[in-house]
């Protein structure tokens, strides 16, 4: 092995050690250019990232004294960059002023560029960027052996940059996961941990999010006139945005119902407030049920929600409640009218979101209304909380491990007389 070959190997080892010393992307990029300037003895160096000529972006520009160079995009030959990016092959010129293929390049002539080398960053045969060095004062300082060394450094740099990118992505992903975990805890804290005691009624509920955060919610809201409000809601869309709108909807509805007066007008007030804040185009379906302690007559207001099921125990029949008005957050002029229901002892009202009936099995067959009604009938003698759990268990058996695609929320109200 010649002395020059040994020197190149030692240089590559030193460069690899320097690149392996950090996983911080910005530090890696700076280290790459510092090492490139050192091993090539170039006057200036530039590093660009991108997989195609039109995607290349400057990230680091260095001078021989490791000084950052500003406005790099205006001080380099685009012709050479394009050639290397398109061919994924390195280029060296000992005197750019006299190269035929560069003679028409105004940037080369204007900047008086002479010695130039440019090599692609190659990762498993794929270009991820390029590194460029030049010297405006001297011709002939770069030789083919220098280009070979530059390409070897570029290949090592491509691996280091990719590792730093993956590390940065992992850190971002971990932070997002922590933030989602906190968001889930905040959301869960807004869901009632237990059902209130209401004379003449028995209440049970269940809330299960499909993802880290949910768009479904339910709530129990004591009203100024002594009525206990039961609310269930389902925000359109999924993900973090839906979760934020869920919190907004739950808070707005709860605050509106805390005002005295007709429950239909209170829901209308919540709608007006949500319309003012619903610039994202989101809306929420909502069903309100007003329970009067010791009375069998209840009030209901539906804002575009799935019609709840009413199981009439004495007759053994099932019927749907009215769908009512528009979802909240669509039309600020929307009106919501309260309906009265006269229950009998043993009657059950089942409020639920569409994730319950839309849950699919491995063959993509939904649980559907028929199975829901059969489940309600089969478990109708159970206490309210146990009934909610039994229905949800039937849904889980139907899904049998199929991917969960939507939140599931249900509230059971049994009239005890």
Keywords:
alpha+beta; Beta-Lactamase; 2 domains; 417 residues; 39% helix; 5-stranded antiparallel β-sheet; 10 helices; Phosphatase 2c, domain 1
CATH superfamily of the largest domain: PPM-type phosphatase domain
Report the principal-axis shape. Answer: elongated
The class by helix and strand makeup works out as: alpha+beta
Alpha-carbon Rg, integer? 34 Å
Low-confidence stretches: none
Our count of domains comes out at: 2
Average pLDDT metric: 84
CATH topology of the largest domain: Phosphatase 2c, domain 1
Residues in helix, %:
25-40%
Portion of residues in beta strands equals 15-25%
Q: How many H/I helices? A: 10
Describe the 3D structure:
- The protein is built from 10 helices and 15 strands.
- It has 417 residues and is an alpha+beta fold.
- It folds into 2 domains: 3-170, 2-Layer Sandwich (Beta-Lactamase); 191-415, PPM-type phosphatase domain (Phosphatase 2c, domain 1).
- The model has no long low-confidence stretch (mean pLDDT 84).
Summarize the structure.
This protein is of the alpha+beta class. The chain contains ten helices and 15 strands. The radius of gyration is 34 Å and the shape is elongated.
């Amino acid at each position: 092995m010649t002395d020059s070959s040994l020197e190149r190997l030692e240089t590559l080892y030193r460069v690899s050690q320097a690149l392996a010393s950090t996983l911080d992307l910005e530090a890696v990029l700076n280290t790459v250019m510092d090492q490139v300037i050192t091993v090539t003895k170039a006057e200036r160096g530039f590093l660009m990232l991108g997989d195609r000529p039109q995607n290349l972006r400057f990230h680091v520009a260095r001078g021989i004294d490791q000084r950052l160079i500003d406005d790099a995009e205006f001080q380099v030959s685009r012709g050479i960059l394009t050639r290397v990016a398109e061919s994924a092959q390195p280029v060296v010129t000992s005197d750019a002023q006299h190269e035929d293929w560069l003679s028409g390049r105004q940037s080369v002539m204007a900047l008086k560029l002479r010695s130039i080398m440019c090599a692609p960053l190659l990762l498993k045969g794929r270009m991820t960027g390029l590194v460029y060095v030049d010297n405006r004062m001297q011709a002939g300082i770069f030789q083919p052996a220098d280009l070979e060394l530059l390409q070897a450094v570029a290949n090592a740099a491509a691996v280091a940059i990719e590792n730093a990118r993956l590390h940065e992505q992992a850190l971002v992903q971990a932070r997002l996961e922590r933030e989602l975990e906190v968001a889930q805890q905040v959301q869960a804290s807004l869901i009632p941990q237990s059902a209130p005691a209401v004379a003449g009624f028995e209440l049970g509920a269940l809330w299960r999010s499909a993802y880290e955060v949910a768009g479904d919610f339910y709530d129990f809201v004591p009203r100024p006139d002594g009525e206990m409000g039961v609310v269930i809601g389902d925000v359109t869309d999924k993900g973090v945005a839906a979760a934020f709108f869920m919190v907004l909807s739950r808070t707005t509805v709860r605050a509106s119902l805390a005002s005295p007066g007709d429950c239909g007008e209170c829901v209308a007030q919540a709608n007006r407030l949500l319309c003012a804040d619903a610039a994202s185009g989101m809306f929420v379906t909502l069903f309100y049920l007003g329970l009067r302690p010791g009375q069998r007559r209840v009030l209901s207001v539906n804002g575009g929600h799935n019609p709840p099921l009413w199981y009439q125990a004495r007759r053994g029949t099932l019927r749907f409640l009215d769908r009512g008005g528009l979802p909240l957050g669509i039309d600020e002029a929307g009106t919501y009218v309260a309906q009265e229901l006269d229950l009998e002892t043993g009657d059950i009202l089942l409020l639920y979101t569409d994730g319950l009936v839309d849950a699919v099995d491995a063959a993509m067959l939904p649980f559907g209304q028929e199975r829901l009604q059969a489940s309600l009938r089969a478990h109708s003698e159970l206490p309210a909380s146990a009934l909610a759990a039994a229905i949800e268990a039937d849904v889980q058996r139907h899904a049998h491990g199929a991917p969960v695609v939507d939140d599931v929320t249900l509230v059971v109200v049994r009239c005890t007389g």
